[in-house]
Design a protein that fits this description.
By secondary structure, the protein is of the alpha+beta class. It is built from one helix and three strands; from the N terminus they run H-E-E-E. It has a three-stranded antiparallel beta sheet, with no helix packed on it. The longest helix has 7 residues.
């Protein structure tokens, strides 16, 4: 997690659509843009880039 607890708490409320990658509010059952029902929570940790 990051340095700021308030920001981390706000990020954890975001859901991401697996189809169109749109950000959705907490508690959403479907995407606000494409109405797709498969959502995932936003990742909490920062992922490292792959080495080439």
């Amino acid at each position: 997690m990051g340095k700021f607890a308030v920001a981390d708490a706000k990020i954890s409320e975001i859901w991401i659509c697996r189809k169109c990658k749109a950000r959705n509010p907490r508690g959403a059952k479907r995407c606000r843009k494409c109405y797709y029902t498969h959502l995932r929570p936003k990742r909490k940790e920062i992922r490292a880039k792959k080495a080439v």
